[in-house]
Structure formats: C-alpha cells, structure tokens
Amino acid sequence: MERGIRYCRVNALCTLLLVLFAWVPVTKTVITCRSCHLLDKWSGRELLVRMESGVDSGKVSGKNGDGSTALFNSAGAETAQPDCVATEHGEHAHSVRKRNTDRLRSEKMPPDDKWKSMRSNGKVYNLKRAGSQGSTPGDHHHRVRRSTQGPGSPAGARSLPPVGNSTAQAARRVRRVRRVRRSELRWNREERRTATSRQEELKLTSSTFALTGDSAHNQAMVHWSGQNSSVILMLTKLYDFNLGSVTESSLWRSTDYGTTYEKLNEKVGVKTILSYLYVSPNNKRKIMLLTDPEVESSLLISSDEGATYQKYRLNFYILNLLFHPEQEDWILAYGHDQKLYSSVEFGRRWQLVHERVTPNQFYWSKLGLDKEPGLIHLETSISETQALYVTCKLQNCTDANKGKPFPGYIDPNSLVVQDEYVFVQVSTGGRPIYYVSFRRDVFTPMKLPKYTLPKDLHVISTDENRVVAAVQEWNQNDTYNLYVSESGGIYYTLALENVMSSMGPEGNVMIDLYEVAGIKGMFLANKKINNEVKTHITYNKGRDWRLLQAPSADLRGNPIHCILPYCSLHLHLHVSANPYTSGNIASRESAPGIIVASGSIGAELTSSNVSMFITSDAGNTWRQIFDEEYSVLYLDQGGALVAIRHTPLPIRHLWLSFDEGRVWNKYSFTSSPLFVDGVLGEPGEETLIMTIFGHVSHRSEWQLVKIDFRSIFNRRCIESDYVPWDLHDQGERCLMGVKRVYRKLKAIARCVMGKTYSVTMISEPCDCTESDFECDYGFERKTDGKCTPAFWFPPSSMSRTCITEHTFLNSTGYRKVVSNNCTGGVVEQYTARRQLCPSQAPRGLHLVTSEGKLTATLASNVTLLVFLEEGDGSKTSITVDFGDGNAFTYSNVSSIEDGIKHIYKNVGIYRVSATAENSLGSETVLLFLHITCQLESVHLSAPFVAVKNKEVNLTVVLWPSQVGTVTYIWWFGNNSEPVITLEGSVAFTFSREGISVVTVQVSAGNNILQDRKTVAVHEYFRSHLLAFSSNLDDHNPDVSEWRLDVSRVIKTSMVQATGVNPEQLLVTVLPGLPTAAEFFLLPDKQLTEGKPDKTASHLDQLSELVLSALNQNLVQFTLRPGVQITVYAAHLSAAPLVDTSENHSGSAMLMLLSVVVVGLAVFLIYKFKRKIPGLHIYAAMQDEKEQEMIQSPVSPTDSTPSCSSQRELLTSLEPLDTEPNTQTIECIKPHPRVKFSSDLPTYIDV
After folding, report:
1. pLDDT tens for residues 628-671?
2. Which DSSP helix (H) or strand (E) runs through 216?
3. What is the Cα–Cα distance from 685 to 591, expressed in whole angstroms?
4. What residues pair up with 104 in beta bridges, in sequence order?
5. Contact status, residue 364 vs residue 152, Cβ threshold 8 Å
6. Phi, psi torsion values for 448, nearest 5 degrees
7. Is the pTM of this model over 0.70?
C-alpha cells in the first residue's frame, strides 16, 4: 500500500522521506474504514507523510497502532507517495519525508477500482476497489500500486486514510497560517499549564545520533524488530524524481535500541543500490532487501536480523510481495509482466505460478477453510471486461490441478477472498450482480433490499461471521448506506443511512465510519442530515445510534451551553493506515474506554475551530484537552499519553499525562529545537522507548533522538493500583447482551503496567430484550420501533431454504444482533421458529448463462444456471430444453447447482427453456440465446460502372459466411443518414452521374467491420471482357495491389494503340484465375450532350476501334524483362454488354445468340468433366457449396464446424453480384480440394 504526504523544498527537490518499518504484532484485526480496502488480518502496512512549515495547519497524519509511533504533517494534507512501500505479511513500513520549511509539493496516485474492503485494528473504514496485498517496489513509473491490502495479510493491517476533500484541506491551511502568527501566545498559555518553570523544566532521558553522510538522501525505511530485540535497521536512499529511480542508498543497523548505528554498505556491496526492505512476519530475524531494478534485479537475504547477507539474482521485476500468514519462507511475487511467481525458500528460488494474473488479485489459502495450505486464490485476466476466478496449487499450477470455484466469467478486479467469505461481481445488462461464497460453499447472489439498486458497493468487514457493506444507492452522491448481513453473508438489512464519504487523493472512496478498539460493538459514524454532518455513536453494532454529548466546559473551565439535538460534539474520523502513526482519532485494545480525537462543537462537523477531545468512559462524557490539533500517542499500554504539537516550527518539548488526559506535564526531549518528521516507538503496546526522526534544517543530516520513558516511572503497578470500571451507555449496562466490568489503572497511579499486563474483563449475561434484535431481511423498522414487512417483501418468501432443505426458519421479522450474548427474556418471542416446509408450487424460476450474457460462441461450452426462489427443491424436477433438439430433465434443483453445460454445433438464435414442476404446479422461463461465429472480414460486391437512374444490386459477402445475427449499415454518396438492413443485399438507384462512394458496415456481436467501393455512374457506356496470353497467370499473385498496377498498364497500352481519350476509358482486372479484365467506354460529353442517337453511334465507333486493335494484337505490355503480355478481346464478358439505347442492333442479337451457344458448350463440358482451366474449378466449387447448403439450419450434426475464415472467391466469369445463401446456419467449411483466392474480390478504379 502506498500513500502519504510529501515535503518539498524551494529548489523543487522533495525533502527527505523517512519510511519507518516497525514490527507488526500478530493480533486480531477488526473492522477499519476510511479508505476501505480489501485488507485482512495479515496484511502489511505503509505510511507516507509529507510536512512543510509555514504553509498549513498541523495535521495528525496517522495513529499509533500500539501507542508508540506517530508521524506529523504540518502541511495538513495527505497525498500519495509513489516510491515507498509496506511489506505484505511483512514488517510494518513507515514512510516519512523530512520536513521542508519552504513549500509543499504533492503528487497523486492513480485510482483503484471495484470491490473495496478494509480490515484494521478497530479503526476507521477506508472504502477502496479491489484488495491490496502487496508491497510495491519500484518508482512511480513502473510500479503497480495497491491502495488496499488483501486477505492473507498480517494482523492489524491498515490502509492510510487520506485527509479528505480539498475544502477541508484548504480550511486547515488557512487555520494554520493564523495559528502560526499567534503561536507565541499559545506557547505562553501552555507554559502557564506547566507545573515547573523553564529553569526547572522536566527532562526526558534521551540520546541523539546523526546519520553522517546521508544529508542528500530524501527517503528512509526503518525496521524495528521489537519484541525483546534491540535491533533496528534503517535504509536511506536518494530518490531522483526526474529519473524515477534510486541513485544512492545506505544501510544502517543498530543493536542498542537506536543509541548508535553502524553503516553496512560494505557488507551488501559498495556499489549496490537498495530500494526496499522486507521482513518475514513469522520470523523477524529474516530480512529481505530489494535492489533498484534500474541497475540490477537482485535480492539480498539475511537470516540473522541483518548482520550478514547473501545476494540472489532475479529474472523478473517484483511489483508486489505477499507473505504466507504461517509459513515463514513462502512468498508470492507479482511481476511487471502480469506473471505470478512463488518461492518456498524465502526468495532464494522462484517458480512461475500463472500468467495474465490481475494486479493485486491473489490470496493465500486460509487454514481450516481451504483443502491445503499451499492453495492460491487468484483472478486471471481474459479481456478488458472479463476475468476468471481460479485456484492453484503452489508448486503445481497446471490446467489439470486448477479449480474454478465460480462457474463463469467475473468482472475484472472484483475478486475478494476475506476470512470465510469470497466475493465476486458479474455485470449483466449494465447492472452489477454481487455473489458471495461462505466457507468456500457454492456462490449465491447477495440479497440487498429490493430497490437498493447499488451504484457502488464495498465490503468493509467480515468479522465474527458477518459482512458489513457500504452501498451507494441510485439516489446518493456523497453518502453511503451501511448494511449488515446474517452469518452466510447473503441477506442484508439497513444499519445506518447517509454515512458521509469523500474522495481520497488516490481516487479511493473514504467512509466516515470508525470502530472503537477494545469494546465490541462500539462504532462512531458521521451521518449527513439535512446537509449537516453529525457524529453518531452505537454500542450494539449499529442497531441503535445517538449523538455525542458535548463537554460541559472548555479548556479554561468556561461552561459550554450545548443542548441535544441542536448542538453536539462532532469528530473527524480519519485514521492512519499505519498502526504506529497518529491520525484524527485513536483507541487501543489495551486501554478500553479511552478515545482521543479531533473535532468541533456545534450543529455540525466543521474543519475550523478544531480542538482535541478525550473520553475515559467510552463516549458517555468528553473533555477538551487542547484547543488545536496534537498527535496523541499511547505509552505503557495506555497507562500514559504522549502529545506532540502540530507546528511548522522546530520544537523541543512534548506533553505527558498519567491520568487519562486530565493533567498534562511538559517535558523536553532535546536541548536544541528540532523539526520533527516522525516518531517510531518500540513495537508492542507496552511502548516505553521511542525514536524521534527530525532535522535541524532542511539541509541537515538525519537526527535520530532516542527517548527512554522508563526513567519517569518509579515502580511497577500492583493490584491496588487498579479499579473496576463498568461499561455503560448513558447508564444502561447491558450492552451486546452482557454487563462488562473492566480493570483500569487509577488516575493517581504513576507506575509501569509492563508487558505482562493484559486487559481483564468480567462479563455477566443479561436477559434478552427487544434492543438485542435487529430487523430481519425484508423488514423495516418503523417510527414506533417495530419491524414490519417492506412493501415489496411477501413474508411467505422467508421459506427460501425449502429449495434445498425440508425445514425452514419462519421469521418473526427480527434476528439477533451478531455476537450478542443475551439469554432468556424475549428470546423465544423474537427468534425465528423452525417449521416444516409447506407444499407449494415452484415460483421465481430464473435461467441465465454463467457469464450473464445472451450470446455464446459456436462450439464452446455454454453453462446455464437455473435458480428457484420458492418451492420444495427436493421434489421439484427441472427440465431444460436447449432449443436445438436436445432436452434433459433433472430430478431436483440441488443436482444442477454447478450449472448445466451444453455445446451448440450450429449458428443461430435458440429458444432455451427451463421448466420447474412438482405435484402442485409448474413454472417455465425462456432464454433466447444467440450462438455466433467471429466475423473475420467483409467484402462489398458492387458494379464498377452503373447506369444512371437504373437500379443496381449491392451485395456483402461475409467470411465466415454465417456468423449469426448480422446488421448491415449502408452509406450512399454524401447522404448523412444511413440505411440499415438485416439482409446482406440492397437495390439502389444512382440519380447523378459521376463518382459515388458506397460504404457498408457489418455488425455481428461486438465486432464491426466495413468495406467501401467506388462506383462510376454514367447514362451511356459500353463494356467488354478482356483476356490475356496464358503466361500472365504464372505471374498473378492475385492481390489487389497487383491488379491495380496491371489495370493501369493495360489502360495505357490501349490508349497508345487506339488513340482513345483516357477520360473515356476505364479498365479493371478481376480477381481470381485465369486472369481476366473488363474495360468500359464512356461517351465524349462535348460531342454527345443531349444527343442519345449520336451517343450510341459514338460508342459503337469507339467499341469497333478498340476491338479492332485488340483483335490485331496491338495491345501489349511488358510485365518484366522477357515477359511480354498480349491483351485480347474475350469471347465471354464478365457482364453482358450494356446498351442503354432503345433500339437493339443486329450485332447485339448475334451476340446474344453467341452467349446461348457458349452456355450450351459450358454445360456439355461440365457434364463430360473436361479439364478446362477456370471452368472446372468453378463447377467443382459450386457443386460443393450446393451439397453444404442442403443441411437444415436447425438440425444437429455430428461434426463440429470451425469458424475459420473462408476464402470462397468465385472464379467464374460472372460478376459477384449474387446474394449469398442465407439458409445455412453453421460456419461453412471450404472444399478441401479447392484453393481459392487469398485476397478479397475487388474492382479497381483507374
């Protein structure tokens, strides 16, 4: 995942970036949201922060996931950073830029798409498209970014939430400028709050180490092993944003918790340029370094926490890495060529798994759900609109071992594998259909309320066997509705309407929803009501919501008059994706009930007058702790709080509180002021050691200040230091069906809880009441609190399980909130009762293809899916008639759950029907399925010359000749309106003389091809066929370019031999063998204009002149040296002589008789099979075509036709004006013994 904020200096070079890697403790991850991503409990993390002084208000860029680390953004804006990463399943990556004191420069990242889901340690949920699972090494020109984290990532995975919309950012910028001007007054106010004077100020134990020689480096990546390890690794590098690559790097290692560092460049190679650092999530001693691929593509691997390294060459460029959640040496790597690789030796050897894998769409198997630990879930790309969900074995991903859990194509970037659930999306008719599989069972369409009609849907959480989804409905623009499901993830009910959303800098959607850590069922959300955004809270997973009560007094003790519902407290719900950085709101598992957040008081949430607030009793009462934004971190598992002010100025103090934020003491952590770039704490929520990364000026070296807080505690906590605390909601102690009592540290206790401390909770079940139940699917809560059926929902349909079972749960309109542990009480009254399925006729029968389309390709497997909404599936038979003479009957619905496969052998439109029938009735549904072939080419057959005001036929020839339903679109001349037909032939009359262009487009399925012809239109002309000496055939390649050149040569030879005006002569060579041509004589307009009789005689004279020259062998040309071609007047013409005069001469009658005689001769030759070139081929081909066209278009055949291109070019002496046969439905094969012309037939206009 790659996001963050960048700092830039005046000289346009971005200031230093620090990427902080910290060990991620493997703990359970709960819901997160603010840039909702496909995360899961084992996903790696990354934070990128950009800071600049004097530009914007101080902005908390992230929250410390363990109370130890924070990064500050004095620019107040979070932007995508294209050159830092977090490892998948690896060590946590923090990215911080060194603060620039001059100006801010932001860069955007490309947006993501489709399903979005996020899992985090109880933080805000960031809605984002397809799930991120990998680190993204490389520069911003080469990397494929993942803004979400996919299932199978380390616990506590989070995604960096962008700040929000530009309006809020602008408001913060203005606010910061004003605060800078009165910062001295604020410091004076803070000084008065300090218990000691400047001369007696409290000091923290600290040490400073400067990274000498790395002042030019503008990026850094840090890994702190933590968990009883004193090793810290730090990779600094100089990233050239103009070149888009790393040009220098240094590797530093500390073995004393950061007090001193050793430079390791000689151990990894002085000339080696490193770009990224990864750590195994299962073995912190295993380190992986990636070199810059611009120089070399290699891995450096260490098994001793970075003390020594071995180098291994790579033959591909790594874009994403996904570590196995349990096997420390198993890794998936996604390459730049859409190939997925695997390693079972921690990167020492790699093996290709699959090609054409969709970026970021691959997941490890989940133990207990998948059959084997080495199974991989992945999405493969078929086209821009189609993908496949397949499963593969790690070391043996062959076609025989591939699984296809979903029967059909899915939408690209829609696969989400998260916990017990798998989600895919299939678009049909412009509408998306969402499918879910629970515990790897069959896929079932997700059931939202009937008229939800989602424009966008994101999976937010799959915890505790329940799906939380954010849905933007058809009438929403900047808000989403939250829906929750039952355990199967199929049926959804509304939890909260109009939750605010905003667009992040990466183009990701961010939802204002936050789950409070440490208290099950508690959420905060920002809801839009009458164009006002208000913060709401729930203690029972969204069943009931209320506004927040504002503090009774401000920071100075002045009373605040804020009366509900007109005035309340509103919070900014932005959290950092990085568990070790601070955001706008923070809570911890180890400190239940304590929430720190920034916000405002009034009628709605604003970005002005932002203050810091804290609650110690889980949101019942709030206190103001600062009147501007601070970054607040948790120390010692929440026993102490650290606050660092957001300021563009250098600082040397921080604030500490030991009583849950009631009193704050100021401590100095360094002797000279420091521009703070970020804070890294010892991993684990028991943090007592912290490192502050900063610089004295924007040109100085890195200054690493190690702070040891252990000196301010004088003892360890004992039992008497704790008190019990009852969780409640405005006095109501029964929450989620139990009374919970926590053990908390006393406010006056100043002791160390330590690593052995664990949250203690005593729970006591409560009797069930109506508040423990939410509305069931199809029911809506009315104003009186009762759940009644929606107008579109018939309660009888609740017997839906009767399709596959004999009993069903008869809903009362209510269902128990998931994870609610109440007992007794009204449980019997509200719980659904199991009853025998009633006998009823089948109802709600659906028949669709697995791809959701109405078309299929000939000779391919067509999978038909049959669904039944109501009826006894075990006693209902299903009969499917495929419409091609084949029909099958299945005894029950469950026998066809995986779909019905069928192969069609002929092109056509088939009426497919499915009939469900039992003893009480039947129901039939129809599907009209188009079986098509791929259209490869089209040819428009048109006369070279047409007679004015006389109808001519224009015909389109298709290859293959039958491709299914075809639409023809014709354009004639300059007409702006086309003529659309379903037939491949039209008759058209040209009313003007001259050159006219005819264009035809043929639409078959998703394919559109076109051809264009030029027609010369004249009122009078003569035409004759030409023949050639036989040696021309030996040099005829039968391509259009050759015919065009030869036509030009023939015309020139005829003009030279006869003296005919070139404008009165047209010549075209016809396609096919033997070589033939046709010439056309046009009248001289100046001599014959308006004189029809003179025109005829003039054309007769020209004809006699040209024929005389031809008969005397005067028309010759040289094809190549030594090859002389003679042109003759043929005895048969490619078209009858065109005589447009009303009187027929005797010569014309003689010509007609000669045509009849020649026709009889051809017939006799055909009958006796005389081998005359050209005539025999044509006869044989026609005979074959006649045999093929006899077959019925709907009768099945035993052979499977091919859709290969047909080259059925007629070599007869007749023009290609005949209409193609439209009876046959199958793709016609060419005759095996006949070789046709390799080029489309065409007339050449010269």
Report:
1. 888 888 888 888 999 998 888 899 999 999 999 999 999 999 98
2. none
3. 10
4. none
5. yes
6. -90, 165
7. no
